[in-house]
Amino acid sequence: MGYVSVPEFNIAIRVAETHGLARDAAAVRVGVPLARGLLCDPGAASLRTAEGRPVLHQGRALALWPDGTIKWLLLEALISIGAHEHCTLLLGPKGVADPRPDESPTLTIAESDSAFDLDTGSASFSLPRRGSTLIASGRLHDMNMFGASGCTLRLTGRGGACSLLEIERVAVEAVGPVAATLRVEGIFASVPGLRVPCVVRIAFVAGSAAVQLEVLLRNPRAARHKGGLWDLGDPGSLNFEDLSLVVEPVLEGVGLQWSAELDSVPRSTTARFWTVYQDSSGGVNWQSRNHVDSQGRLTTRFRGYRIEAGDSDPQRALLAEGLRATPVLQTRGASGWIAGTCEHFWQSFPKALRWHDGALEVGLFPRETGQPFELQGGEQKRHRAWLELGRPAGSCTLAAAHVPLEIAVDPRWIETTAAVPYFVAGDETVDPRYLQYVAGIITGPRSFFARRESIDEYGWRNFGELYADHEAVRHTGPEPFVSHYNNQYDFIFGACYHSLRTGDVRWNELMRDAARHTIDIDIYHTTEDRPIFNGGLFWHTDHYKPAATCTHRTYSRQNSEGRDYGGGLSNEHNYTSGLLHYYYLTGDREAAASVRGLAEWVCAMDDGARSGFALFAPGPTGLASKTVDMGFHKPGRGAGNSINALLDGYVLTGERRFMLKAEELVQRVIHPRDDIAVLQLDEPERRWSYLVFLQVLGKYLHVKLELGEADYSFWYARASLLHYARWMLEHEVPYKDVLHKVELPTETWPAHDVRKCHILHLAAYYGDAPERERFRDRAAYFFDRCLTDLLSFETRDLTRPLVILSVYGCIHGYFLKHPEPARLPAEVRHDFGVPQQFEPQRAHLAATFKRNLRLLSQELRRAAGEALYGLKNRIAP
Questions:
Q1: pTM confidence score
Q2: Measured between alpha carbons, how far is 151 from 406 in angstroms, rounded to an integer?
């Protein structure tokens, strides 16, 4: 492609090393938002140091503006930086003769019928297209460091039956001058009657002899969830004993060198069998009831990790022990070495690193736990491991994998792009009370990091989850109350927003951990259940009840108390915007798949043709638009969250069907002439979530304006928003003033007042001049009351109100900084008619059945009457 002139821009990107490890050509990745019209081709951008030196990089467009220019650019680069140093990179337009960075390594891929061969400049690797070998060879110059079996992935089922991953397809997922990723798909056949799917993404970096392997194991079966209960022990679960990466190196005179923790001094041994095994988190509450099996028995056996070694497996002796391991294991020989490690080794316990009689093994689900693992129906888990090759005199770099470089884009630039809705960079318009309040999420003794310790929110299934401590307020027992949040109110988006606003890595960590947990554990990855469940997002665990054995699913048999109890997934708990922006920031393809899947879930649950009543009644089920009960299809969070997911699905994919479905739901649920009084929106216990719907209606208007679509649907939504906002002006009051109307007058009610502030700002933004100041004044009033009332509660710093404020609290500051109204085209007058009552499929079927039954009854009475009349006539004299 020839040189293309692009507009001038200069984006500052800050990189920092904060762990005392010098980095040489380390790979970094960051999503960069761009303004509309700025860049069409990722290759037309240049990356330089502040001193003007070119930096080797590659880019990939993750999202486009409606005009086809790039909205989000995934930038990957190689950075050399000293310990405890920081630097600034500048992203701008490429010049005509921009040089390639001096001495840049090259990354090449050669494809044949049998394999993919990669050369990073420091090492070369071969990945077969078929068979059971992930990486057949790893060469330093001409020497192959791998044995005949190469690198494999081994699953051990119940009873000890082993199966290697059988590769079905390999494809290049991404490639550039900095990095390449190949996607390997395969199955395990060790479980009778079940083909267990597995995806391994293998990533290579130019100039590096290290390889990252991300292993995704999924149970595709549906849970049976009899009675709406989702406990461990379900017949749909997958049970197995071990999942390990295995490498058999070709090294003479092998010895081992290992370090257990990041700053520990490396030690050596010549033992034939060596293991570091992390059994629990090592935290104070390592015996939390968070870690139980299907029988409610604790699965953790001891605190922290142990290192054992010996000349035979049964005779290993204890070498060392500790609390939280971040280990690296090297197998060293005369000709070189191979090293391995695993991400989140102690956080996502149990984990193991082994040297097992000539093989280096990474225990992702390690057999050392002594009990089977249970992957629930529709559950998946991703693990990341690294392998590195080296010459005898070379230094291992895998310790740095545990503490990546920090990287952040200038917040002032992000604000100018308008790529993040309601984004405000500075603090000058944001209430200091608010800033201090949400800072408690990442700092202090009650930070979300500290809350993990409360119930030991660690382990392969739990790490990344938020502790739902607001559910434990009434708990009086001696043990910590276990309850899970499952991304309610979209904390992932809140963490993403503040990560971008502040550049603070702690927000980024919370976002990343929560997103990966949500994608793997909280989403129901199956197509074998009912459409209302397949691909959905599980509710948070039940209110004021311990999670017990349902893990991160809502209803447990241990809470049923013999009454009608149980349920499943629902449209009211469907949060996608955080996952979408996490994808923009990281390029995680599983996040993109999740956003699309949750939009598909909305379409599927509402599709009457997929229900069991399709033969008897047409039309949509209404499951996408209901809130609280099937009889309410007016503004509420059920319809609001469905529309939001559809909008995110449309923005991600560009598939028009998602937008059309969103507009169908908008016009089903709200109308510019609704009789609001009959909806009883002033009864917060049942109708508070109409606020969620109106917030999403504002997002719909934003997307339509961005697309330049001021059509009937746009004006319909605008008229509806203003109709309800005018009602709010006259009737809405702060929730603290009406707490006598609610069952539980908690701190969360005043937190929701921030939504009223948002809606009234939207009304000012989209409304006409005579009303704007009144809308703005009332928005400011609700923001002040939200903070004042919330901060008056002793329980103000519980998880739920903090999440709500983290997501919506900066919107007021944004509109103070940007008070200008929307630039609307000349309004086209439409006749919107009168509201129509929506009839869901079951209601239509019931009405039809009753009508037919009535007609049948009438016909039977008529026939009976005629028969009686004839009988009388026959017997008359």
A1: 0.95
A2: 31
